[in-house]
Structure formats: structure tokens, C-alpha cells
Design a protein that fits this description.
Shape: globular
Number of helices: 8
CATH architecture of the largest domain: 3-Layer(aba) Sandwich
Order of helices and strands: EHEHEHEHEHEEEEHEHHEE
Number of strands: 12
CATH class of the largest domain: Alpha Beta
Radius of gyration: 18 Å
CATH topology of the largest domain: Rossmann fold
Length: 226
């Protein structure tokens, strides 16, 4: 049985009915499902919402599913991706292996196969990113519930503050660019330099100045000391 999670899903398919059916079936297991009708829209949504899991078709207009996966894998090696297609050629299968995909499902998709692929995706996320991450010896962040615990007390965060912590921790070990931060936090607005500096300053006051490093002219990186 598939468990209910607080993960987000990006579902990319050019067929409206398939998207509707998939959303209805999978809605109970995700906190949010984002839909895209082609690869270009899918890539734009990926950058804006940073989904936990991606399911995409291969044959789509503008940008096919494999091209979408190649773009994502250039910067993101971890997010689980499930490919679905009506084709099972050796070329597609080999490409799927190269792109480190969770699974390659043939249409029409069987529910049990889809749920098994999602179960593997959940396990992959939990192995790569524990739900509770230690920021320091006294501070920890619950990635699923977006809760910061400091010295055994829950610290209230604004939506922008928990989004910044979530994004930095999810991408620990690398620099998160200003553009990524803008797309994730201010995706429907324009981010000013002052607004970003103010947000980082406020989060540093909570987790410690040394936890978040500024890489001049590029972005920020988090240092976990748990």
C-alpha cells in the first residue's frame, strides 16, 4: 500500500485526460501535484517549484521527456524521475539508464507498477535526504513538516524563511544560485537584492551566521554541523 506523504509531484504529459486521471489517482499521496502539458512547461515548473518527484511522458511537443530529463540532470542528480511511454525501444531504455531514472513504465500504465515506482521514489528520497536534518548540535529542520526545532523548542518561521532553509538543505553540498532562490521563493514576483539579503539575514539570526555562506555574485550554500 502506498503511504500518504507531504512530497510534491510534477506530472508532465501532453494528453489532458491522462493528466486528469493521474491527478485524481495520486492526489491522496502528495501534498501538491503540478501539471505541465509539454517539456518546456515542465522544465519551467521544475525550476519554479522544485518538486520532490517527477513523472513525465517521452513523446511530447516542444521538448520531449528525455530532453527534459537531460536538462534536469545537468543540475540535479537526485530528484526521482519516472518515465512513461508507449515505446519500449532499446535506445529509449539505454537513455533511461544513463539518466538515472527510477523506472521506465510502458503505457497504458498499470496502477500497481506506478505505485511500486512511487514507493521506490519515496525510499530514494528518504535515503538521500532524511526527513529531519541536523543544522547544528542544537538545531534541526523537519523537511516534511517545514519545522525548525532549536534547543527542543519549535521556532516559528515565515513561509519565505522555511522555503529558503528547505531549498538550501535539499541542495546541501552545492551553491544555490540567486536565480534558483528567486524562482523558488519569488516565482510570481520580482526578487530585489534587498529582499534577499533581508531574508538571509533573518534566517542567519535564527540558525547562526556561519550556517549560511554567501558566494559573491553567485548564491548561497548551507553548512550543516550536526
Amino acid at each position: 500500500m502506498l503511504k500518504r506523504t507531504k512530497y510534491t509531484l510534477l506530472f508532465v504529459d501532453d494528453e489532458v485526460m491522462i493528466r486528469r486521471i493521474a491527478t485524481a489517482v495520486l492526489k491522496p499521496y502528495f501534498s501538491e501535484i503540478y501539471e505541465a502539458k509539454d517539456g518546456e512547461e515542465g522544465l519551467d515548473l521544475y525550476h519554479r517549484v522544485k518538486p520532490d518527484i517527477i513523472i513525465c511522458d517521452i513523446e511530447m511537443p516542444k521538448m520531449n521527456g528525455l530532453e527534459l530529463c537531460r536538462h534536469i540532470r545537468k543540475e540535479d542528480k537526485q530528484t526521482p524521475i519516472i518515465i512513461n511511454t508507449a515505446y519500449t525501444t532499446t535506445t529509449y531504455l539505454l537513455e533511461a539508464v544513463k539518466l538515472n531514472l527510477i523506472n521506465y513504465l510502458q503505457k497504458p500504465i498499470k496502477e500497481e507498477e506506478l505505485f511500486e515506482a512511487l514507493r521506490l521514489s519515496f525510499e530514494h528520497i528518504e535515503l538521500q535526504h532524511p526527513s529531519v536534518v541536523k543544522i547544528s548540535k542544537t538545531d534541526s529542520f523537519d523537511m516534511l513538516n517545514h519545522t525548525l526545532v532549536k534547543e527542543n523548542k519549535i521556532i516559528p518561521l515565515t513561509e519565505s524563511q522555511h522555503k529558503l532553509l528547505f531549498l538550501l538543505i535539499k541542495n546541501q553540498g552545492r551553491i544555490v544560485s540567486y536565480e534558483e532562490i528567486e524562482q523558488f521563493i519569488w516565482f510570481d514576483k520580482v526578487m530585489s537584492s534587498d529582499a534577499l539579503r533581508s531574508l538571509v539575514r533573518d534566517v542567519r539570526k535564527i540558525v547562526g551566521k556561519r550556517a549560511i555562506e554567501n558566494i559573491s555574485k553567485y548564491g548561497y550554500r548551507i553548512h550543516l554541523d550536526g
